[in-house]
């Protein structure tokens, strides 16, 4: 029996699309049809998205102070809202759920104007600008790392955690197996586009500073930008070491499961996935984030002992080499970090978020939903 259509809206990055994908799978299991509104960037992530249809509506960010650019952005947003309104009137969804990013603005604005139930999911510990603009209008907010008290919107916030994809849940079933001296050591390095640029430059140099014995043990998976592929591949060839280098890995969940150490940025989805699988990490928050959300996300995992947070300004290739030299010969330390990270994971986040979506779609308030959880 089809319980109705749920319209999910997400910006075209993995951090926005992946939690939406996890929710979509749960809603499909519960008998809902799912449609996705996003932008063209999401094509690389949306291949496995269980949507009946993927829609693209016009959207824009208002980041310029140029009056002409602002006017153009406002016109694009207005056009997008009109397109989203027509889409919602045609699909008649029971609820519209936004996951952040500017492509969520037109459908959420249209939903609130049409009186359709609406809510947001904010992945980070600090609310993004699009979600912050929409927060006063929606009926409820689910938070990956947001607090349920002491915040301007805490009365409508539920701390659900960040839902993760089925592949991550499957990877979480694999226990951490430490690498002892003399055994292969799996190192996974990744980040967003700018994160990949930084690591592309830092990691080859750091690895070149290791002694031959340690370098021979390394098996590296590293995400790099397409324009950095030739440089990094050349460095790997000179170092004569085992490495998989690519702009994107479709099997990243399995690679994380096999990792002995992860070095990465601290986006919300990344922190949630590492926690759930339970792998030790060196987190390097993106230093130019407007709201410093990655630093706040990283702090949440570091507090459990599952990760070490190092600002990019303090993470030289020499320091990376020193860290690797120590931890590759200290499997007990990494095992303790893995266990601590696992304790921070929230494996039931997708189910809880799906419960909340159903409750808000049925007309319940956040207070009523919280009472059912008590």
UniProtKB/TrEMBL annotation:
Pathway the protein contributes to = Cell wall biogenesis; peptidoglycan biosynthesis
Q: What does this protein do?
A: Cell wall formation. Catalyzes the transfer of a GlcNAc subunit on undecaprenyl-pyrophosphoryl-MurNAc-pentapeptide (lipid intermediate I) to form undecaprenyl-pyrophosphoryl-MurNAc-(pentapeptide)GlcNAc (lipid intermediate II).
Q: Which organism is it from?
A: Rhizobium bangladeshense
The domain of life is: Bacteria
Localization of this protein: Cell membrane
Check the record and name the Gene3D superfamilies matching this protein: Glycogen Phosphorylase B (3.40.50.2000)
**How is this protein named in the record?**
UDP-N-acetylglucosamine--N-acetylmuramyl-(pentapeptide) pyrophosphoryl-undecaprenol N-acetylglucosamine transferase
Catalytic activities = di-trans,octa-cis-undecaprenyl diphospho-N-acetyl-alpha-D-muramoyl-L-alanyl-D-glutamyl-meso-2,6-diaminopimeloyl-D-alanyl-D-alanine + UDP-N-acetyl-alpha-D-glucosamine = di-trans,octa-cis-undecaprenyl diphospho-[N-acetyl-alpha-D-glucosaminyl-(1->4)]-N-acetyl-alpha-D-muramoyl-L-alanyl-D-glutamyl-meso-2,6-diaminopimeloyl-D-alanyl-D-alanine + UDP + H(+)
Q: How does it sit in the membrane?
A: Peripheral membrane protein
